[in-house]
Amino acid sequence: MSERVEQEEIFSQVLRAGRRTYFFDVRATKADDYYLTITESKKFTHDDGSFHYQKHKIYLYKEDFSDFQEMLEKATDYIVKEKGVEVISERHQKDFKKKKQFLNLPLREVLQMCLLKTSKIYIYFTSKT
């Protein structure tokens, strides 16, 4: 079996985005033409403090640049038009920290936690009819 050996990088850019990092690497083919690899790397930390990285790669060749760029622009324009540029999910903010889940806690404990945070608590009850 032959192992696939990564080609030497000719040009490289790194975009750090929270726990994700994107690598844009220009490489050379055997025929000495260039292509682009886009790698998304995510860091996952385990409960014991150890971690691993999960990577996904896209190989993009010159003959696809124009169509890829056009489709990427259409998709990103659609997202911005429909949802705006503001990030909606807190999870994707750089300073996001997991919040405690209140789903399985007794109401008394939830209220005690809330009282530690604020002096005003508004409770809304709904009933099914």
What does this entry look like structurally?
This protein has about 130 residues and is of the alpha+beta class. It has a domain at about 10-90: Nuclear Transport Factor 2, Chain: A (Roll), CATH 3.10.450.700. The chain is built from 2 helices and 4 strands, in the order ββββαα. It has helices spanning about 65-85, 105-115; strands at about 10-15, 20-30, 35-45, 50-60. It has a 4-stranded antiparallel beta sheet, with no helix packed on it. β1 (about 10-15) and β2 form a beta hairpin.
Helicity level: 10-25%
Mean pLDDT: 76
What's the level 1 CATH class of the domain at 9-92?
A: Alpha Beta
Main β-sheet description: 4 strands, antiparallel
Sheet with the most strands: spatial strand order: 1-2-3-4
Number of helical segments with 4 or more residues = 2
- For this structure, the CATH topology of the domain at 9-92 is Nuclear Transport Factor 2, Chain: A
Q: Any low-confidence stretches, pLDDT <50, length ≥5? A: 117-129
Distance between the termini: 68 Å
Number of strands: 4
Q: What is the string of SSEs from the N terminus onward? A: EEEEHH
Shape: flat
The structural class is: alpha+beta
How big a fraction of the residues is strand?
25-35%
| Backbone CA Rg | 23 Å
What is the second-level CATH architecture of the domain at 9-92?
Answer: Roll
State the gist of this model.
By secondary structure, the chain is of the alpha+beta class. The chain is 23% helix and 32% strand.
List the helices and strands and how they pair.
Layout: E1 9-17, E2 20-28, E3 34-45, E4 51-61, H1 65-83, H2 107-117
Antiparallel strand pairs: 1-2, 2-3, 3-4
